[in-house]
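Running this now, will post back.
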Amino acid sequence: MLTVTASLGVIAAMTLTAGTLVAAPPGAAPHQTISAISWHPCALGPDDAEGRALDEAGVECADVTVPLDYAKPDGRTIAVAIARSRGADGAHHIGSLIINLGGPASPVLDRVPLARAAMGATGERFDLIGMDPRFAGRSTPVDCRWPAYWLPRSAGADRAGFDAMVSLDRSLARGCSRADHELLRHASTAAMARDMDRIREALGEPKISYLGYSQGTYLGAVYTQLFPRRADRMVLDSAIDPALSGTRVLRNTAAGREAGLREWAVWAAERDADYHLGTTAGAVLDTVRRVYAASARRPLAVGPYAVDDTLVPALLTAPLTDDTENEELAEVVGVLTRAAGGVPVQPTEEMSATLASLLRGAGSATHTAQTAILCGDAAVPRDPEVYWRDIQRHRAASPLFEPLARTITPCAFWPRPPAVRPVAVHNGVPALIVQAEKDVNSQLPGAQALHRTLTGSRMIVLEGARTHGVYLFRQAGCVDDAVNAYLGSGRLPATDLTCAE
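Update: finished.
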C-alpha cells in the first residue's frame, strides 16, 4: 500500500515550438526542444538504500532539466527527479501515468514499485512515472535548516498560544533568508504543472495520464487548465477546492474535523472498558477538552517532549484522518490524559514521529519545499492581527480546530512574494474525482467545488468513510473497479457514483 502525506490568473498563451503545441507564461519566449531522457540506475551510491530498492524493483531513474523561471526559459535551470516502472502489457500499452502524493511536496520515487503492485493489470498498461516535485526528494533541493515546523500546529487556546506561533513563524521565515531566494520565489503549483509538461515532452508522449492525491488534485487541475490538450486520463483523489490555493486550503477544515472527532467519541465511549475516556460521547469530548485546557496552562510532559496547546490538535489530527486509526487516537488521548494528571508517560510511535517533526526539525528539507509551494501559490496577509481577529471570530464554533485551521503561517513573513499569480481553474477537460464522504483533510465540499469547476468531470464518493486517499489505499472494490475501468478505457462513468464499502 502507498502512503499519503499529509497537508486567480490568466490561462497560459499557447505557443508552437518545433511543431509541438506547448504552454508558456504570457510574454515568455518559446522553450527550446527537449533532448531525450538519459535513464540511469537509481542508487546514487553504496549507502543509498532507497535507490538500491528501486533498482532491485526494475525501476529506472533520470533527472529532467527545467527552467527555474518559466518566464525566462533560457535562464537558470533546476533538475526534477523522476523514476519509471515500465508496464509489462506492451500489447495494450496506453502511455505514461504520473503519480503525485500531494504534500504539496511529498517525494514519490520510492512509492513507484508499490504503485506498480497495487494497480495490478490496469497498471501494467502504463509506464508509471514518479516525479519528485521541484525542490523535494531527489530534485534540486532547498532547505532552510529548520529546527522545528509549523504544520499542523495550532494558534492555541489563547493569546499566548497565538503569540508563540507568531514568534515561531517569524523565526522560520527569517531562517529562510539564508536560503536561495530565487529558488523559494519559484516554488508553486503552477511551476510544478509546467515541470510535468516538460516531463511529458521529454518522455515523447503526446498526452500524459495522472493520478494525484490530496494537494496533488490541485496540481492535476492546474495542469488541465494550462495544458488541456495534453491531459489524458486524470484521476484526482481526495480533492481540494482549486479556489483555495496556498495556505487558504486549511481554512475550511475545522467543521469536518469536529464532526470526525464526534464520530470517534461515539466509538470510544462504546469501548470505555478498554480506554477509560468516558462512557458517553459527551464525556469523551469533555476529556479531550480538559486535556487541551491543561496543555494551555502548562505544557504536558510526554516522554522527552513538552506538549502545549499548539501541539495537542496536531497530535489528534494525524490519527483522526482515518477511521481505521480509531484505536491510535484513543491511545493518544489516553497518553495526554495521563500526562495532564501528572503521570509519567511515553508517546506512541506515531505521536513520537509527529513531535519529532514539529519540535526537532525532522524532515526539514521536505518541510521547506512544502511551505515554499504553499507560500508561492497565493499571497496572504502580512499583519498578524488579521489572523488573530479571524481566529477570535471563529473560535467558538470549534475551540479545538478553528485555531488550527486559521493559524498564522510563515507565509505572513516570507522573504519573497509569489512570482506568479495563482491559476484560475475552470475547464471541461474530462477527469475522475474520487472522494471519501467524511475525509477530514480534503473535505467533501472542496471536492464538490472541484467537480463543479471541472465541468467535464465525474465524481465517485465512498459513502460513510473517514479516510484520506481512497483508490489503492482503502481497498474499496467499487471505487477501485470504477477507477480501473476509466484508466483502462479512457471513458468516464456515465453518471456520478456513490459507493458503499
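The longest helix spans residues 159-175. More later if anyone needs it.
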